[in-house]
Design a protein that fits this description.
The structure holds 2 protein chains of 2 kinds.
Chain A: E1 3-4, H1 5-25, H2 29-53, H3 58-88
Helix pairs in contact in A: 1-2, 2-3
Chain B: H1 5-8, E1 10-12, H2 14-36, H3 40-60, H4 64-89, H5 104-124, E2 139-140, E3 143-144, H6 147-157, H7 160-186
Antiparallel strand pairs in B: 2-3
Helix pairs in contact in B: 2-3, 3-4
The chains are: A mainly alpha, B mainly alpha.
Chain lengths: 101, 189
């Protein structure tokens, strides 16, 4: 089977879309965070595929930075999760609606 | 110049191509399971499987360092953090509570909007035809070394400032996490 950049783009697009769907529809805050991680992973796949396609290392270096950002984002997000749970005793994001207009 | 057009865009062939297909389909299935699973522990384990399969894809295209970092940081670090927090908040699994919001069908429709420009770009965009260099990921100048050494060379020579900024970012994230986790502990009544 011959794989071109288009196959990588399709896989990456589907991963990103699944992650975006999870962010939009899940009620559990933890699962929303996991979906964000899925989206970041899809972006990494894109970067590495184009790095291979263009015979350049820049995409790989950039994806290492993306992984760094994902680690920071996960740390902050999980701290927010604990903070939310302490105040509301729930992780349902539909109940955290104090600032709703 | 035009002779390399035929082979320029091919990234994987033969058995590696089929391995790509298997890993990609499994990774997508695991990603769907992450979003659909009701229990967050199951979601976390499916997410771990998805990360490992994507790491396999990285290694398939000879980005070994990124694949290793993916396993170490994502599968090793972030997933342990997730599982710790799941255990910490020990959610009661309430029977009958829906996992999805009531507008999930609208969200699905919204995603289709993204599909149109994606397919359009996929059909019309011609990516530049650059002759593939099989050793591009393991070269420093003209020397052939390992992928890790080549990435390190690029990271510390060409991208030193972003690297330092990333360290500041991690410090800020750490302080932020400590402050967020500590705040409500102070006003325990």
């Amino acid at each position: 089977m011959t794989v071109t950049i288009n196959h990588f783009l399709i896989v990456s697009f589907l991963l990103f879309t699944i992650g975006l769907f999870g962010v939009l529809v899940r009620r559990n805050f933890l699962t929303v965070l996991m979906s964000v991680e899925l989206m970041m992973n899809a972006v990494n796949l894109n970067l590495v595929a184009f790095s291979k396609r263009l015979s350049s290392l820049t995409g790989q270096v950039f994806s290492v930075f993306v992984i760094t950002i994902a680690a920071g984002e996960a740390a902050i997000g999980l701290a927010l999760t604990i903070s939310l749970f302490r105040q509301r005793k729930t992780l349902n994001i539909e109940e955290a609606d104090t600032m709703q207009g | 110049m035009t002779g390399s057009v035929a082979t320029g865009g091919v990234l994987l062939t033969g058995g590696a191509g089929w391995a790509f297909a298997v890993f990609a389909v499994l990774a997508l299935a695991m990603a769907v399971a992450v979003v659909v699973a009701k229990n967050p522990v199951h979601s976390a384990l499916f997410l771990l499987a998805s990360f490992l399969l994507v790491a396999c894809l990285f290694i398939l295209v000879q980005a070994e360092f990124v694949g290793a970092v993916q396993i170490l940081v994502y599968a090793g670090g972030i997933m342990v953090l997730f599982l710790f927090v799941i255990m910490l908040v020990h959610q009661r699994m309430v029977v009958g509570v829906k996992a999805f919001q009531h507008q999930w069908d609208l969200a699905l429709l919204f995603l289709l909007v993204f599909l149109v420009p994606f397919l359009y770009i996929l059909g019309t965009e011609k990516f530049p035809d650059i002759a593939q260099n099989p050793d591009a990921f393991r070269m420093i100048g003209t020397r052939v070394v390992g992928n890790t050494q080549a990435v390190a060379w690029s990271l510390y020579r060409d991208y030193l400032l972003p690297f330092e900024v990333a360290s500041v970012f991690l410090l800020v994230a750490m302080i932020g996490a400590v402050v967020l986790g500590k705040r409500s502990a102070e006003k325990v009544d």
